[in-house]
Amino acid sequence: MNRVNEVRTLHPLAWWFWGISLAIATSRTANVWLLAIIITATIVVTFARRSNDPWAAALTIGIKIACVALFIRMVIAIIFGVPGDGRVIFTLPRIRLPEWLAGILLGGDVTSERLNFVLMESLTIFALVITLAGASSLANPKQTLRSLPGILHEAGVALIIATTLIPHFAMSLKRISQARKLRGDEKRFSFKRSVIPLFEESLERALIMAESMEARGYGHKPDAVAGGRKKAPTILILIGTGTLLFSLLQMLIGSRYAITLAFSIFCLACGLTLGNQMNTRSKYRPIPWRKEELLVMVASIGAITLAIIANFAFNPLIAVALLLTCMAPLCVTSGKAHS
Fold first, then answer.
1. Residue 293 and residue 8 in contact, taking contact as beta carbons nearer than 8 Å
2. CA 57, CA 52: separation in Å to the nearest integer?
3. Helices in 229-285 by DSSP H: which ranges?
4. Is-contact 35 314, C-beta < 8 A?
5. N or C: fewer beta carbons within 10 Å in the chain?
6. pLDDT at position 329 over 70
7. Cβ 22 vs Cβ 328: under 8 Å
8. Long-range pairs for 258-264 at CB < 8 Å and ≥24 separation?
9. Which residue, 94, 228, 213, is CA-closest to 154?
10. What mean pLDDT is predicted for residues 187-208?
11. What is the DSSP string of 278-333?
12. How many helices (H) and strands (E) does the chain have?
């Protein structure tokens, strides 16, 4: 007799916290081995715990996009260059460029220092794409939408539609390709037979979604709160978002950003809290936040800390600890098991 063991997964916001934390750890390290550890841990956890739903293909698509971006970035680094010293690996024929492109070389000497710098930069971007794609594959978008505060419900709808767009496109292309093979069409690619049905299916899915959203009252705003008080959460969130962007700009240029960052977090917290209190949307069977989610959050913060420490003193012990903290979700979750 076949039976399916109980599947134990995490809160969708915990999956996003894990993925974003690994992305932050990626941006804080400058070691190739640490980047390889984060990428490997993300791929192992995602493939071990993802479901068979359409959004679970986000990691596969993200790996393909990241590989293409890595290849293009390395080719550009080899073809284009800037004058500089270093150990020359090989030399390409140099092409003269116009005067308004002074300082950029097309061809010429390719140094090991330039390739190492570009490889490290490309691997960082690769790891960022993989970590966020892994979180998108593991977090159920419907449950994520249910977990958001009421004031962020409409923004969450738009965000979830955007993040699941490419996986739905990939599934549609797969269905169209299978249908063509069943009809005896062996051509690898055809615009009329592939792209046009894809547009038709996407338009039909958009219309069905629009009808279902209208039937469920999306976009309806009850006038339960009168006066200018109902605009206060929006104003606070806008001020907090603008200040947050300004603090990020200060961080990039090397200026002090602690005060503006604290002010932006305060405005966002006040706006979200006030707006959620004024919101009349209720939740049916809210998803509980358990000790497993807290453990994953602590491990994710530990991964960021280890990545920062490793920049000053890297050793194998820190690498093993980083691997264990990145793979912490495997210890508190379980996949589908058949017996």
1. no
2. 8
3. 232-253, 258-278
4. no
5. N
6. yes
7. no
8. 264/239, 264/240
9. 213
10. 74
11. H-----SSPPP--HHHHHHHHHHHHHHHHHHHHTTS--HHHHHHHHHHHTTHHHH-
12. 13, 3
